[in-house]
Automatic annotation (TrEMBL):
Enzyme Commission code: 3.5.4.12
Sequence similarity: Belongs to the cytidine and deoxycytidylate deaminase family.
UniProt signal peptide: none
Reaction equations catalysed: 5-hydroxymethyl-dCMP + H2O + H(+) = 5-hydroxymethyl-dUMP + NH4(+); dCMP + H2O + H(+) = dUMP + NH4(+)
Keywords: Hydrolase, Metal-binding, Nucleotide biosynthesis, Zinc
GO biological process: nucleoside salvage; nucleotide biosynthetic process
Purpose of the protein: Catalyzes the deamination of dCMP to dUMP, providing the nucleoside monophosphate substrate for the thymidylate synthase/TYMS. Also, part of a nucleotide salvage pathway that eliminates epigenetically modified 5-hydroxymethyl-dCMP (hmdCMP) in a two-step process entailing deamination to cytotoxic 5-hydroxymethyl-dUMP (hmdUMP), followed by its hydrolysis into 5-hydroxymethyluracil (hmU) and 2-deoxy-D-ribose 5-phosphate (deoxyribosephosphate). Catalyzes the first step in that pathway, the deamination of 5-hydroxymethyl-dCMP (hmdCMP).
Pfam families for the chain: dCMP_cyt_deam_1
A GO cellular-component term linked to this record: cytoplasm
Ranges of residues in domain CMP/dCMP-type deaminase: 29-160
Name of protein: Deoxycytidylate deaminase
Organism expressing this protein natively: Salvator merianae
Residues spanning the membrane: none
Class of this enzyme: hydrolase
Amino acid sequence: MSEEGNLASSTSNGYSSEMPCKKRDDYLEWPEYFMAVAFLSAQRSKDPNSQVGACIVNSENKIVGIGYNGMPNGCSDDLLPWSRTADNKLDTKYPYVCHAELNAIMNKNSADVKGCSMYVALFPCNECAKLIIQAGIKEVIFMSDKYHSTPEMIAARRLFDLAGILYRKFKPKCSKIVIDFDSINSRPSQKPLQVTSN
Ligand SMILES: [Zn+2]
């Protein structure tokens, strides 16, 4: 046994109580992680104009539902329109597409999502607000509110306010997260996740 080992650094269990290597302190924090999951999920969307993801989290910081905007199950996204404008509304995506919030709720892997928080890229529309309220979700954290003045968003806020649903804009501690698949084969100093601070 080394001299240091006698200085209360080794235990009868045979391991050192001294930390041989400090844990990382630049790990991703929960809120950034959940919003990043929502954004990563959005990359599954076939919508050429708008990719939105949502991530539902319970009180134990466990993800219980993820979704992105897309056509309903069994309805080919090659046969339905993706246009935003057309002479006939039936030739636009709007009557058909399922929003990320709807899909995240329907994809839940828990019995329900009561009391959960939803991380979502865009502030929810009125139709999604109804679903969020009825599902029992208590808080919405959104990245962008770019359609703030549209009737759909005004109605959504009205519903949220009446139902007591909290909503707030996400203020990320980092502006960019880049995933590098090759980093797993590289030196420990090379990070799989490149986080760009604000
Ligand atoms: Zn919606």
